[in-house]
Specification:
globular; single chain; 3 helices; alpha+beta; 8 strands; eight-stranded antiparallel beta sheet
């Protein structure tokens, strides 16, 4: 089954949007401020569409990667107990919007389940050290 760039991109963007529309409650023992937690590290997100990696760079840019090679990018910022992302690689005519994920009480290595999203199904998150790729996660 061949998928068009537009539908693949839409699915990848929808996953990112759903990811940051969800929030989880903290249960970890060694919480870190969001900026320290994500800068130079990765958030692994899984849902019905599969996994995606959101790699946070210290210069406050991020890259979102899917196993099929598709990607999107944008900027991130920490605010209070959350990290907020704005996707800047959007199709023509779409306006960038900011999406935030609460990380209060989270620590590197944390894994948690978010609420089930009607469009994307159950969503799980894991904070990973560095910028692993999909081959390193197998």
């Amino acid at each position: 089954m061949q998928t068009s760039f537009r539908s693949s991109f839409h699915g990848l963007t929808a996953l990112l949007l759903a990811t940051f529309a969800q929030a989880g409650l903290a249960m970890d023992e060694a919480p870190q401020p969001p900026e320290q937690l994500v800068s130079g590290n990765t958030l692994l997100v899984k849902n019905w569409f599969g996994p995606t990696l959101i790699q946070f760079h210290p210069d406050q840019h991020f890259q979102q990667l899917a196993p099929n090679g598709r990607s999107s990018a944008g900027s991130w910022r920490a605010t209070g107990d959350s990290v907020c992302l704005t996707v800047t690689t959007l199709p023509p005519g779409r306006e960038p919007r900011e999406y935030c994920l609460e990380l209060q009480g989270r620590a590197l290595g944390s894994a948690w389940e978010g609420p089930t999203d009607p469009r994307n199904g159950p969503i799980s998150y894991q904070l990973l050290q560095g910028h692993p790729d999909f081959k390193q996660l197998q």
